[in-house]
Amino acid sequence: MLALIFTPTIVSAAPASQEPFTATLIFQGPDYTDRQWIDKKGIMHVKGQHQLGIITGDIEGSVEFYADLNMDMVSYNGDVKAKGVITVDGGEYKITLDGIIEAGLISGTFVINGKGDVKGIRVEGTFTVMIAANIIPLEGTMITKP
């Protein structure tokens, strides 16, 4: 009887590198909003607010965002969500921000995912900014997969 013994070769991928990340989003201000209203409870709703700007720091490029916001006009509490695209030489990043508004101060998280020549780069982090600010500092971790 002939027995074949198979020994699998385990190939492990190189681990992803992680490094601190800092950048600043700078917006020109909103140029249009799809819808905006204040309901009977005094909650302001903003849907599809379009903003253009730049990002500087560990990622440099142009930014286009669409934001949705819900905020109580008495307490200045609420939430904000935004999605956008960061365009850089050779590729683009998709970015999402998710924040809670407390007394006009927005605190939240963001995720940036690379596409094209920057595929394999992911950034996760936090931000804190006043509601009307056009400058948003970002801090987090850049994860690069080989």
Concise synopsis of the structure shown:
This protein has 146 residues and is mainly β.
Task: Note down, in words, how this protein is organized.
With about 150 residues, the chain is mainly beta. The chain starts with 16 loop residues before the first strand and ends with a strand. It has one domain: SO1590-like (AOC barrel-like). Helices cover about 0% and strands about 70% of the residues. The chain is built from no helices and eight strands. A hairpin with a 5-residue loop joins strand 3 and strand 4 (about 80-90). It has strands at about 15-40, 45-55, 60-70, 80-90, 90-100, 105-115, 120-130, 135-145. Strands 1-2-3-4-5-6-7-8 form an eight-stranded antiparallel beta barrel.
Question: Which features characterize this protein?
Answer:
single chain, 146 residues, AOC barrel-like, eight-stranded antiparallel barrel
Low-pLDDT runs of 5+ residues are none
Mean pLDDT value: 92
Strand content: over 45%
Q: How many strand segments?
A: 8
**Total count of helical runs of at least 4 residues:** 0
Q: Indicate the overall shape.
A: elongated
User: Structural class of the secondary structure composition?
Assistant: mainly beta
- The CATH topology assignment is AOC barrel-like
Order of helices and strands: EEEEEEEE
